[in-house]
């Protein structure tokens, strides 16, 4: 493989790692401004040099924040692209917007409006997205200002009542759409408040001086989303694995111990859902999971790296036939794990490799400090002397973006490092890992991404 | 090296290198005074009532010792029997501008810097013991006070705040050696890991010498120590484990032999309580070496339970050198001059340049200055 191809491969993998992990928020080691600056550069660099691949990353599990940035960057620079590729880009953007949570999309639309991006393609994309919403009247109630802004900016034709509700809601005596009618009555009638979505109901509750306890309990409570139900009522059902791990770690340890059976059961069920058909196919697996102090994340991403590690513990349990977890300092019930202590990764890797598993999965932010750089040495000697045939496949999942290096921190050159945001995506991300160690060609990477794009658009 | 402690792997951030000091067996019968602990996480309470312990208060620690609840600072590190109601020797503090700070009563902190350092030095040098006629009345009766030494707050040292924030405390850690741009800045040791966790952030409120302030600003980054493993020596998993142990021992030895430069020239026991001895030590005052002053608590076997040092700047070392010579000869000018290989005017001028002119009678100082001018 020539140098140019290799650089391209590394660039793209680097960008994907960044786009999966970084949310532009403060991390344990770096601040939000550094994260954003570094990320903005990376986006521009990949957009200019590898535009096709940049668009193709929308088909990957990049996080919502970065997906938003990619969509905005593509629309900003739309005229620079020849027509057939424009079509593909448009299809990718439309597919991604359908995937994103609505509040994210409305934020993108708001930015489009603020920046005055209003080409024909943008208008078509907004129109199609709005037309594709399952219940536009519900959106009109829950995201009223956003939908009004988007409709005004992109000249979107809305169903009659919705348009009236957005721009001249006082005029009709009553609406025929039930949710619009409930919303209209909620202005005057306390009883109607309880039938509205929770965030909207909260606004009206303040207006009618209904306190929160009454809002939550009367008439079976307001209409909550699954996440709101978790946050307000502690109901851990139907929640994705990593979100659930974040929730479990947010509880004080005595409470975790008290609700052990319930939480463990929910985490195991979520892990089984995430593993899907791959459950039990990974052979013997050892997870080396980082619970050092730096896994506590930052004030805005509280215990996120630790939550990814905890989720990974349950996911590996579901994927493996035999499974063992090595924490850096913690012992005993994984649910009670707490981010404390240094990062003796070298020693713990050896403890894990000693068991001679089929796969070894490391989840760590890569700040190996006790002693620094020992993990790399252990992995190097292991490959050279103790496992030259590569019987044990080793992969490093890193939940933290290092803004100085424009990538996630690596452990060793010979070991693939992949950025990870949600543990449940790990199985697909591991596939991409081989492109970063120089063992696969650029053509293969392109083919891999094309496959992904095709599957995504179908 | 420090008896009873082992150097762990260093962590670096910018120009700051922090070497954790690990203790295999924590000392349970000497603990930070309960008043300094946050009431919510009193690990001391875990001790049963029958077990007795001795409390210590680090020098310059501010707490509400006084009956009326106003803040006061401990004067010198002290050993206290916690069952006795008596208060430690403390300097009352009055804050005029910073009254708001007092609201946060659970936060541990140190005295304002100049006061802390001055107190520190004042504890070492009392002034002339004999009323030689050359010294002013004030010097004889009041010693060197008021004496001002300058130091920098940890908070003003570039990068130290981040380094302390991202530092990962080891579970058995009882101390730290702080290097700034690979110059040893301070050593801090406590008896118990819980005490260390409570006191770790106070390193930022501690005081450091001027030299270190400059080093930290001028040197952007220190490298990590890279310790390669010899692949040729490994043929089994146990060999690799042995290599890891060898590397750890090698680092520990390197740190103790090469990086740890604190030398106690003279050490003076100040106070004994139970099996613990509190002493203060002075460096050899050799301008060619690092010079650290400090306080140490040791037990009967010489294990260091508590240690705190301050690195003197070059000017401070010169002053300390002069003062220690004066003290050795009982503050007799002629004898000191002979010991330093100079004559009386030479010594007087050196004292003047070092900032001790106000201790000498003005007529003597003027005569020596005039003599020096005539000689030129």
Q: Radius of gyration of chain A from the CA trace? A: 24 Å
What string gives the helices and strands of chain B in order?
Answer: EEEEEEEEEEHHEHEEHEHHEEEEHHHH
C-alpha geometry of chain B: globular
Poorly predicted runs of chain B are 38-50, 94-116
Structural class call of chain A reads: alpha/beta
Instruction: Give the overall shape of chain A.
Output: globular
Pfam families (chain B): ARPP-2
Protein name (chain B): ARG and Rhodanese-Phosphatase-superfamily-associated domain-containing protein
InterPro entries (chain B): ARPP-2
Protein name (chain A): TROVE domain-containing protein
Question: How does this model look, in words?
Answer:
Chain A has 23 helices and 7 strands. Chain A is an alpha/beta fold and 458 residues long. Chain A has 2 domains: 3-229; 241-445, Rossmann fold (3-Layer(aba) Sandwich), CATH 3.40.50. In chain A, strand 3, helix 21 (374-386) and strand 4 (393-398) form a beta-alpha-beta unit. Chain A is globular, with a radius of gyration of 24 Å. The two termini of chain A are 32 Å apart. Chain B folds into 2 domains: 6-223 and 236-259, no CATH class; 332-375, no CATH class. Chain B is built from 10 helices and 18 strands. In chain B, strand 17 and strand 18 form a beta hairpin. Chain B is globular and about 80 Å long. Chain B starts with 5 loop residues before the first strand and ends with a helix. Classes of the chains: A alpha/beta (458), B alpha+beta (376). At the A-B interface, helix 20 and helix 21 of A face helix 6 of B.
